[in-house]
Amino acid sequence: MIIALDAMGGDFAPVSTVEGAIFAAKESEHKIVLVGPEKLIFKELLKHNKRYDLASLNIEIVDAPEIITMNEHPVKAVRQKRKSSLCVCAQLVANGKANAFISLGNSGAAMAAALFYLKRIDGVLRPAISTAFPTINGFCIIADVGANVDCAPEYLLQFGIMSSLFCEKVAGIEKPRVGLVSIGEEPIKGNKTTLAAFELLKKTDINFIGNIEGLDIPRAKADVVICDGFVGNVILKFGEGLAEMMLKLVRKGLRRYPVAWASLPLLWLAIKDLRKKVDYSEFGGAPLLGVDGICIIGHGSSDGKAVKNAIFAGIKAVNHNLAIEIKEAIARCGKGC
Prior knowledge:
Layout: E1 2-6, H1 15-27, E2 31-36, H2 38-46, E3 59-63, H3 74-80, H4 85-94, E4 100-103, H5 107-117, E5 128-135, E6 138-143, H6 153-169, E7 177-181, H7 192-201, E8 207-212, E9 224-226, H8 229-256, H9 264-277, E10 285-289, E11 294-298, H10 304-319, H11 322-334
Parallel strand pairs: 1-2, 1-4, 2-3, 4-11, 6-9, 7-8, 7-9
Antiparallel strand pairs: 5-6, 5-10, 10-11
Helix pairs in contact: 1-10, 3-5, 4-5, 6-7, 6-11
């Protein structure tokens, strides 16, 4: 298997991406292709020469002289910078020279590149950016978290089908519970879009549990959370900010009450467990659902560990034939779900 990694994507690239590629190559037999300016990537690789036997690692560099930054317009950048690290990654998958591509950079550009080069799966109305979100019992999958800020009910229906399949096949959750984000649990609550989506979702063969409220997400009421990209992005960013606030409050409390330091050895394992639960690097990345190939989009602030986990998310998606499974599920839905 060959995984193409956008070596220039992310806030700390190419430092984090090169490090993540090395971590993944050490733990896997699959080839990792670092895509970006060849001299710059090679220079970064050499920094690890003393610590790792680079010659033994299955890593290759593919030159891509252009870079798409975080503040560029996604569609415009993809059209104008076809030799960018991101576009070349997508081209490698489209041409059959890689099985998946990973990007931690401009998520809008990653979606645009995937749509431009890989195309949508037949029958898919809109792709969805999914992501893992921590809950009291582990995590759930939220879709969409930014690709589609305005959605038709049919889009939400397909998000539910695709995310449920991803959760079952890749995350290993049997019959994942699918919930639709609304302002109340009752079927009569919501706006026109969610009310119509509710009626569509309940007619499918997925494990649709009905409406869920925002407080139900961290309580792990659903394994798959369906919403439009506007709501999903707000949930995601609020969750990240809340987790950061909680950890800062713990530190502040310890400084305020010096006697609390005496109990720190007893609390430390619990604090470490909390940090791990809310750490996005544990999840790495999640697939862009609905494109005809595997594209994993990760967090812009990813470190080497998160990059490694994003690579392994891509490997899992390929191993489970996720794109093919989604294609078959969408075709069945077109015939009545």
